[in-house]
Amino acid sequence: MKTTILIHCPDQSGIISAVTAFIHRQGGNIVYLDQHVDKEADVFFMRLESDFEGNLPDIVNFNEEFNATLALPYQMQWSHHLDDVKPKMALFVSKYNHCLYDLLSRYKSGELLVEIPFIISNHNDLTYIAEQFEIPFYHIPVTKDTKNIAESEQLEYLNQYHVDFIVLARYMQIVSSKIINEYPNKIINIHHSFLPAFAGAKPYHAAFARGVKIIGATSHYVTEELDAGPIIEQDVTAVSHSHTIKDFIAKGRDLEKIVLSRAVQLHVKRKTMVYNNKTVIFS
Amino acid sequence: MKTTILIHCPDQSGIISAVTAFIHRQGGNIVYLDQHVDKEADVFFMRLESDFEGNLPDIVNFNEEFNATLALPYQMQWSHHLDDVKPKMALFVSKYNHCLYDLLSRYKSGELLVEIPFIISNHNDLTYIAEQFEIPFYHIPVTKDTKNIAESEQLEYLNQYHVDFIVLARYMQIVSSKIINEYPNKIINIHHSFLPAFAGAKPYHAAFARGVKIIGATSHYVTEELDAGPIIEQDVTAVSHSHTIKDFIAKGRDLEKIVLSRAVQLHVKRKTMVYNNKTVIFS
Amino acid sequence: MKTTILIHCPDQSGIISAVTAFIHRQGGNIVYLDQHVDKEADVFFMRLESDFEGNLPDIVNFNEEFNATLALPYQMQWSHHLDDVKPKMALFVSKYNHCLYDLLSRYKSGELLVEIPFIISNHNDLTYIAEQFEIPFYHIPVTKDTKNIAESEQLEYLNQYHVDFIVLARYMQIVSSKIINEYPNKIINIHHSFLPAFAGAKPYHAAFARGVKIIGATSHYVTEELDAGPIIEQDVTAVSHSHTIKDFIAKGRDLEKIVLSRAVQLHVKRKTMVYNNKTVIFS
Amino acid sequence: MKTTILIHCPDQSGIISAVTAFIHRQGGNIVYLDQHVDKEADVFFMRLESDFEGNLPDIVNFNEEFNATLALPYQMQWSHHLDDVKPKMALFVSKYNHCLYDLLSRYKSGELLVEIPFIISNHNDLTYIAEQFEIPFYHIPVTKDTKNIAESEQLEYLNQYHVDFIVLARYMQIVSSKIINEYPNKIINIHHSFLPAFAGAKPYHAAFARGVKIIGATSHYVTEELDAGPIIEQDVTAVSHSHTIKDFIAKGRDLEKIVLSRAVQLHVKRKTMVYNNKTVIFS
């Protein structure tokens, strides 16, 4: 039985020693430990993979004791995950297919260890992909007037299927606080620029107009401020004067799908922690 | 005798054919031709390296005939450069040494084919490098009140030495239109971010606060709007939560010096053309 | 009507002028010209996109005249392509799905302008993808003993469907000269290393054993010598001691699919020329 | 008082817990802990930065107790470094100046915290740089016949100045086991290719002949087998058919100097460990 523990707390002397001794006493072997101190904020972060080789003590007891012995005295925020439970991932899309295809082909081939209960879209264009991969597809149109109702409908599906996190795979709508508040740091977006440059609409057009020599893509957790949430992953590619906007868009598609998939994998493997609108990404 | 011709004009049918036939008639062999059409702006760009193998016709005649036969009918803006004339490059610095060291070591080893008549600085800190490389160093302090006088003094040196272009090698002052107007698209700056993100002061601090996963450097021609001139070259490097601002600055130094040197080389080799606040960079 | 002309010939004075004048006389406007001289081999390469705006002269006449006026006197090898004819691409696969998924999703979304008459595989594993995308799938098992017969069967399909080029999308078999000779510089392979490092089998294992800090993928035209054909495209990604072989393979998958797709696009857009076992890749 | 401890030993349960408790008992606070397990070789690696804030116990006692309590029972190989002691770095060069300039400018500006007692060269060409930076320069010519004597002379200087490690900054000679045995994993070389491709002489020529689309540079510890030692750092840059060998060499220079400097910094900051001819590079 393998588990992953994520911890953050005020930086103090002796934390690593205390936590590793605790795991040891509980019969666990630490398979991987990664730790970080944000010296500006004076915050300590740790990610621990432990192997209990069959002798995991009762998980409720373990957690209670961890709380009493460590979490309380060190003022920790922490979570404890069983590695063999697949999280439930909802996909939101609009008309672009490249990110959807990329995620679904990774899912289908067993590279991405999630369950995908459904795909939601404000358009019908990608129904054919849902059919190709035999995943339920809910078409929920969104207009200015129906947005509130549409989000209520989305929330119903999210609740009904006990969705753990949401991936906006080029979903061209702004998600409101109604949904964000239910999924804090659990909605992953892909933006087609190297943020903070070119936030908002039409970033490739803006990049072309500015004459940049590099374009990028950014995957981040969604917060209320548009394109301003904690960045999980970014990548870039070179462009030149010889590329048209159409070329930017084509090159960008490859960036977007790779960057989004990497971010989703990091989230699924519980390698991301959020603090002060930034991420700690464990390797 | 080798020469380089740079042309831009409204896009029209038959230009390449007309120009290449002209060179051919004048006894030149086209060694390299690079061409670009900006279809949005409907502008044609061309860069031609020709080899006249000793039989270059009188350059004044050549230019007059080119003007009459091609430049006028096609409404060209063009320039004609003899490849063996080294341009004169002035260096402006403040306190950071890495870009200065990098440029001077390339100059000293014959990699950068320019003359460097002098280094100007608003501080005395880098005098020792000027001495190491035996290049005149003029210390011209700049304060709010003395800026106008200081720039006049700078211009005197620039004029006296017939400087062709200026490189701001981490010169921490804003250059005013007084100098920019004398050197349009001839002042090369290095900015320590992937513009347009983090223009202005302290970009590494801003990048750190935003939690980006990639930092960059941008070399551009200086225009009146700060950090908004035509971009010549950009590059980036990955960073993570484990890097402090100090680490960003250290990693950035390597980017800055490489990106600035590349931009300077492109300018020296006449591979840059500017149009609509963007650059065409020939390969 | 747009066409693309590819030329290579011994380097001589006046070629560009002669060719561009010819196109001009035939009523064509040169939309894009890219040219290269290999000075070591003394060979001239050119790629010309021309737009005839409806008035393309009879193609047979055009080609005959081009032959007489240019190809013969300049000893050119050349080809002339109508841009709106989609080439026919056959896909060979084994068990890995990532390159196949990537190519088919680009095809399905109209990004990759080819026809795909069929997929051939020596295994049955990927039948489901062929079904998802409704493309004929021929299962032709290959063993040492049946290889010759299997390749004859493959050739029958290739001939029957008038296939223009073949993509080995992680086809784990060596293709013999029997097929290579029918498709010279028309079989595109993806090898999972930065060639020439780690040619042959199990490159990720070899890279791991050597302790490299960068892994790569290489797309190349297939020649008789294994993994030694002209390289079309390469890319790399950073790895570290913390990555296992399994991690190398996972990271490599993303490289492989992107690198192969780029190479296929370059081939389809007729931006590749082969000479002396190397490629000229036009931008 | 800050110190760095490097440990490797057979992987066992409870090591992290035992070591961190030990540091804690000795009055140290763990500032940074990085750990790695090579699961194939079943070896555990750890790097610990500790801060004793003035109360470092007697270092001899500390080390003896560490040996008795931890190193012996866990069969550790370990080392303990005081962070404020600058290591002594000898530079070996031949005729190329770019790596030398790069390292010396970092040294001079305080970016590289080492002492440089001398530069050794088999040629006189770079004397001027040694003079620029006021560092002793010993010219020791090397021919087939004098190699043994030359290396004896080199060793005398190395011993006399108590040199800690050697950097071959494009030193074009093969270093024999005579010196390697005295400096195991303490001689850093820069090779101008992405090893293992193009080991040995003239890698840029070989890369050009093969038609690769990416060239690289590799910094590694020197072992008896040429260009086959543990790799510390690698980087690459894109090239195309339009680049000549001379272009490869020019682009390569920038790679070489950056990659070598990074490797030297990693070594100086004690972030490298060697095992099974591979490196663990802590971040």
From TrEMBL, chains A, B, C, D:
<dbReference type="GO" id="GO:0008864">
    <property type="term" value="F:formyltetrahydrofolate deformylase activity"/>
</dbReference>
<keyword id="KW-0554">One-carbon metabolism</keyword>
<keyword id="KW-0658">Purine biosynthesis</keyword>
<dbReference type="GO" id="GO:0006730">
    <property type="term" value="P:one-carbon metabolic process"/>
</dbReference>
<dbReference type="InterPro" id="IPR004810">
    <property type="entry name" value="PurU"/>
</dbReference>
<dbReference type="Pfam" id="PF00551">
    <property type="entry name" value="Formyl_trans_N"/>
</dbReference>
<dbReference type="InterPro" id="IPR041729">
    <property type="entry name" value="Formyl-FH4-Hydrolase_C"/>
</dbReference>
<dbReference type="InterPro" id="IPR002912">
    <property type="entry name" value="ACT_dom"/>
</dbReference>
<protein>
    <recommendedName>
        <fullName>Formyltetrahydrofolate deformylase</fullName>
        <ecNumber>3.5.1.10</ecNumber>
    </recommendedName>
</protein>
<dbReference type="Pfam" id="PF01842">
    <property type="entry name" value="ACT"/>
</dbReference>
<comment type="pathway">
    <text>Purine metabolism; IMP biosynthesis via de novo pathway; formate from 10-formyl-5,6,7,8-tetrahydrofolate: step 1/1.</text>
</comment>
<dbReference type="GO" id="GO:0006189">
    <property type="term" value="P:'de novo' IMP biosynthetic process"/>
</dbReference>
<dbReference type="InterPro" id="IPR036477">
    <property type="entry name" value="Formyl_transf_N_sf"/>
</dbReference>
<dbReference type="InterPro" id="IPR045865">
    <property type="entry name" value="ACT-like_dom_sf"/>
</dbReference>
<keyword id="KW-0378">Hydrolase</keyword>
<dbReference type="InterPro" id="IPR002376">
    <property type="entry name" value="Formyl_transf_N"/>
</dbReference>
<feature type="domain" description="ACT">
    <location>
        <begin position="4"/>
        <end position="87"/>
    </location>
</feature>
<comment type="function">
    <text>Catalyzes the hydrolysis of 10-formyltetrahydrofolate (formyl-FH4) to formate and tetrahydrofolate (FH4).</text>
</comment>
<dbReference type="InterPro" id="IPR044074">
    <property type="entry name" value="PurU_ACT"/>
</dbReference>
<feature type="active site">
    <location>
        <position position="227"/>
    </location>
</feature>
<comment type="similarity">
    <text>Belongs to the PurU family.</text>
</comment>
